Amino acid sequence: MLMIASTDVLRQQNRALVLTALRQAQSASHTEIAKRTRLSSATVSSITADLEAEDVIHRLEPVRKPGRGRPRVLFELNAAAAYVAIVRITSDAVEYSLADYGGTLKDRLHELRPPQNDSVDAFVSRLSDSLKKLAERGGLDCDQIKTISISSKGVVAPDLPVLLWSPVFGSEQINFGSALGAMWKADIQLANETRFVAQSYLENKSSEHPATKPRKIAVLSIGNSIGMGICTEEVSGRIESLAPAFSHMVHQVDGPLCRCGEQGCVEAYSAFYGILRSALDAPAQSINASQVPLKTLDQIAERARTGDLHAELAFRKAAEALGIGLSRVLSLFGEMPVMITGPGIRYLDLMLPTIQLHIQQNLYMRHQAITDVLVEENEPGLVYDGHLAKCLSDLDKWVLALGIAKISGV
After folding, report:
1. Do residues 322 and 268 lie in contact, with contact meaning Cβ atoms separated by under 8 Å?
2. What would the pLDDT profile of 148-184 be if each residue is shown by its tens digit?
3. For residue range 3-48, what is the model confidence (pLDDT) as tens digits?
4. Which residues have C-beta within 8 Å of that of residue 313, sequence separation ≥ 6?
5. pLDDT for 47
């Protein structure tokens, strides 16, 4: 039995190598696949025959070379072999995207969240209905969606699709696996979205500018909540990412109230509601509005830019909490570029000098090169790209590599 199990695992790994090679090359011949994967010709022949029979890959028309010899046969992934649904939860909306196994975006839905308080049960019910709508619009059965990947800001359980704390639902936890598992046979995943931003940026930078790419990066997202993602590329080329609870790191003991219920968190100073509270000189134990419209912050920023010292101080307090927090992160993880994203980048002219000042005041950072601070406007695009890359990689390695019969339980 052990030998059989070991053989199955080895075959799954080899199938995954072939699928990954085809994804990277887009199309490849038998010889090219063997070269990329370092598998024997006989192994590649056996695996490609099985994948063809399962309709996971397609054989393209033979490519004839000048002169004599047999034409090359190319293989490519069958885009219709599987589909993924990507769900991005924000403070005021939920975005649903449908993509095929080839990585092509097929459809997208954007739904505003109800203005009134939303219960977890009502939210999950709407989410499932919207996923069904997405499948129907694509002419798909629900079973054809093999992965549902969900992201939100907040605290996510390390090994389960459970949202432990979020800016929208607070400490009311959501187990997406059990909530959606009865309706959907898909692999249900959950991640902090800023982690996807860091991973997507590092992977894209790696492919676009290999000579100048960073080996690691920290991403700071500023908005109605504060998010952080850190991504590292190991020497082997493997990319690891994480989302530390930066926003709820204590900046000042007994400081202003945070939405998490504690006092003095970085977010209590730096999220939009913290900036609003400082600008209004509201009581430290009050939260005027946990979701603050951009137009409200724009008005405060305009006052700061025209000499209103109280409004200017609100942004400076936010920047101080972010800068000191970042200096601690860099002390722990080492020097790396910091990318700032999210809707709050429109106020960086009021915050960046203070952020950089506090980073460089750190003893460790004074002995390093000046930290590069990058600005990224397209946070939603990087979140989607990170989602998609993770979903397709998992399909290659853990889903379609198992074989259609095993997926279907035959």
Report:
1. no
2. 999 999 899 988 999 999 888 888 999 999 999 888 9
3. 445 788 888 899 999 999 999 999 999 999 999 999 999 999 999 9
4. 278
5. 95
> Whole-angstrom Cα distance, residue 331 to residue 146?
40
Question: What pLDDT, on the 0 to 100 scale, is given for residue 409?
Answer: 41
Residues 301, 304, 306: CA angle, nearest 5 degrees:
110
Tokens, residue 261: 């219920």
Work out the mean pLDDT of the chain and round it to a whole number: 89
Rounded to whole angstroms, how far apart are CA atoms 168 and 335?
33
Tell me the two tokens of residue 241. 């990412």
pLDDT at res. 67: 56
Could you give the C-alpha distances from 199 to 24, 138, 196, in angstroms and in order?
17, 28, 5
| pTM of the model as a whole | 0.88
Parallel/antiparallel/unpaired status of strands 187-192 and 216-222: unpaired
